[in-house]
Amino acid sequence: MPDTVIMKLLSQVTKPARYLGTEWNAVHKDWEENPARMVFIYPDLYEVGMSHLGLAILYGAVNEQPGMLMERAFAPGPDMEALLRENRIPLFSLESHRPLADFDVIGFTLQYEMSYTTILNILDLAGIPVLATERGAGYPLIIGGGPGVANPEPVAPFFDCFLLGDGEEALPEFLNLVGQLKKEGLWDHRREVLDRIASLPGFYVPSFYDVTYNSDGTVAAVVPNRPGIPERVSKRVLPDLDEAYFPTRPIVPFLEVVHDRIMLEVMRGCTHGCRFCQAGAIYRPVRERDLAVLLRQAEELVRHTGHEEISLTSLSTADYSRVEELARALVAAYGDLGVSVSLPSLRVDAFSVRLADAVQQVRKSSLTFAPEAGSQRLRDVINKGVTEDDILTATAEAFRAGWQAIKLYFMLGLPTEGEEDLQGIAGLARRILYQGRELAPGKKPTVTVSVSSFVPKAWTAFQWEPQDPVAVLKEKQQLLRNHIKGPGLRFNWHDAEISYIEAVLARGDRRLAAAIMAAWRRGARLEGWSEYFSYACWERAFQETGLDPAFYANRQRREEEVFPWDHLDFGVSKTFLLRERRRARAGQLTADCRSGRCTGCGVCPGLGVDLRLKGGPEDHALADKV
């Protein structure tokens, strides 16, 4: 794409820096010298996509390798989309401004079900047919990855293949194969290409599997339709993060993005076993990075980015074996430079004053906890593993340490939830506020309660459960609005209709692709943003395609039901999840296998991996030296 054309477009849009591609640390590799060419797309606006650690990791891992390149693209803003369509200009990559159709591979990360219509819109803007069956030789191969591939079936008709699991090693292997196929003159033979891709561990080619349905609409079976294809595709797992690639020269955006900071991944995986949590299941086992590795990475990241904040990133950062030593070492090393250390939402049973002190020395902010449920009974159902005393002890320590703003995250509509559980949310918020006023006299403490709606997800103990109907979720939101109000109390909630569509797609099958297409054709896109979401659009799409959304979102599944994703293998066994569902009904807790005996989830023996916990005495000595 000529720069003169690009510059003319940029003069007519808001935030033109979204489309420049010349940021600090951006990589511009020679097109001709790298025959395997991929563009990575985060299907949302630049500000969201550039906050994604997975993009930074894969961008660096691929571009470090000879013979291959990766560029970036994002969903354009509405103003840019209008200009592209009006001027018949195809969507282009950031680095070289080449049309997306020029690349061999287009990769989408599936982070959120509400991005699916945006994926179709991006393909259409690129002049690429959205259905895989309509793409032959001459079109890029479309691959998906990320947590959404835990159940990719609703979007399977749009993709050629999916990568399950960790991509740091798998994606360069895949692009090496792309280069080899081009060298052999086979790249235009799509069936041969897909055959070779299906032979790579962790790669799922949906067109090689047929789905049959029972008379009641449930899935009867998902089986290979050609010889040599595995009945189940297992995810890829990096056994040791210390040996894995991690970017220490990430791109520094020109404009403010959602997470404008260094993201230091301390570990991957979580074994607390919250029964609603998909990430806790599909990212097992826990693998920690060594303290020395993290300190070295932090030093390089500070030097190469100029960011003023280091975020210690993982699903449960406070559980990292040496989180206190790491936080104190980073504050000691970079506090005088004005670089702060932050942690994501803390598990309240892992909170300590020492950890709070370590991260507050440079810059204070609000502190966030996620009790998830308002009563002890319901917290036991979901296996949260914390008591109200744990919560109040943690918030008291926070107020004493100087915090004045506490944020609490809860879910509405959890299985077995009743009105007393909802009243418990309001009561807990008030008790914490009163506690803050007692412990911080003369101050004005605030407690913010944020509630989302429970969305049943694949690979969880609650994958059999129905979601509450939209009307019920709205009634529960109204009840909380009536009880969480007054000075010092704030209440935020998530759109119940968005959560409903998310629930439809989260456990859907391939038939839903028709509804996704219908919604997109009616204008659905950028639906992670409430201002662009239209529930009426989806209602019409379901009517047009004859699909019942309640069948997917509000239906109780039978224990023996075949799920659309049963031919995929993320390590956690269905037997274990069913056992956890029954324990939930009995209010029984399941211990974390990090500190207790094996819970029999199936990941370690099934995938040939194991927990990797770091932090021996040598790490203590290292932290003391920093």
From TrEMBL:
One of its GO terms (molecular function) is iron-sulfur cluster binding. Gene3D superfamilies: tm_1862 like domain (3.80.30.20). PROSITE patterns: RADICAL_SAM. Residues 256-490 form the Radical SAM core domain. It comes from the Bacteria. This is Fe-S oxidoreductase. It comes from Moorella thermoacetica Y72.
